[in-house]
Write a structure and sequence with these properties.
By secondary structure, the chain is mainly beta. Helix content is 0%, strand content 56%. The protein contains no helices and eleven strands. The strands form two sheets. Strands 2, 4, 5, 6, 9, 10 and 11 form a seven-stranded mixed β-sheet that branches. It is globular, with a radius of gyration of 13 Å.
Length: 114
Amino acid sequence: QVQLVESGGGLVQAGGSLRLSCAASGINIATYRMGWYRQVPGKEREFVAGISGKNTYHIDSVKGRFAMSGDNAKNTVYLDMNNLKPEDTAVYYCTAAGVSADYWGQGTQVTVSS
């Protein structure tokens, strides 16, 4: 059974930092394209960052503030978020995209107060 378990969300003031973690079980993250998405109520889910092999990708609005990384030994990916802004408030989801299936975590809430 595949599980992606996110943690690290919470309430933080603008300008603060959080580190999200996504611990995977049932898959080897080294063989999947791992990513982070976020969603605000009433809006579509938005891609934030991805990692495939040694390559990482971040949307323009988070470049220079967010950094995605992975630890294959721990089978875990991370999203380091710095200089957080109120518009970063959302539920953040971890994803694993494979050849035959995609998996999603349950999400973790990030709230940034102004």
